[in-house]
Request: fold
Amino acid sequence: MSPAGRALHHHFEEVCRTELQRLRRKTASLTPDERAQVDALTVAVAQGMASRIDAVLETPGSGDLASVIMQLFAVPTSTLEERS
Reply:
């Protein structure tokens, strides 16, 4: 996986976990098992999105696409160096 892909995985998971925490009141009626399933599903979707984007980034001719994607998803460029 490319450094950009790793940064996207981390960033997407972080966004998911933050949003899940923010929505706890709306999901208060869920059992702990149901909440864990929702959390796992949400993170799996985020990881799938990051993997598909990373696959595109690794194709020949993707050029400067990584910087555009990082900017689009507000992934700090410092995370690229941290995850290399």
Remarks:
- Residues 32-57 form the longest helix (26 residues).
